[in-house]
Amino acid sequence: MTSIIYKIVPAPMWQEAVRRGSFDGAPVDLADGFIHFSTGAQVRETAAKHFTGQDDLLLVAVDGDALGAALRYEASRGGDLFPHLYGTLDPALSLWALPLPLGADGRHVFPELAA
User: Fold this and answer.
1) 3-state secondary structure of 113
2) pLDDT confidence of 88, banded at 50, 70, 90?
């Protein structure tokens, strides 16, 4: 199983995190007390469920192993185990951040991902 996990983030929010050197999370993350991530197998459904029609998003890839014990896999949607980060994320730990554009059908167009 790959250790790469993904976060969908509004581009301005990520750019501010890079500038500050710390990503505390989106409003939903702050409300829940952890930063929500998805695996490669989960992220398309996450986009469809939580980001439908939104543009100016980035898909950020992170090596989950680099996050240590602060990363926990916990049951969520449909009983699937989702990666949750209990703490802040150093943007320097991201492997890449790529645009997540909307396609002609209104769905997000993803790069090739590790499942």
Assistant:
1) coil
2) very high
Q: Can you tell me the mean pLDDT for 30-59? A: 95
Sheet with 57-63: strands ordered across: 4-10, 57-63, 94-99
Q: Which two tokens stand for residue 16?
A: 């501010």
Longest Cα–Cα distance of the chain, Å, equals: 40
Q: Which amino acid is at 78?
A: G
**What is the identity of the amino acid at 21?**
G
Beta strand pairing status for 57-63 and 35-36?
A: unpaired
For the entire predicted model, the pTM comes to 0.93
Q: Using CA atoms, how far apart are residues 68 and 70, in angstroms rounded to an integer?
A: 6
Question: Hey, what are 5's tokens?
Answer: 């996990």
Which superfamily, per CATH, for 1-34+52-60+69-92? Protein of unknown function DUF952 (3.20.170.20)
Give me the amino acid identity at 8.
I
Average pLDDT over residues 31-57: 95
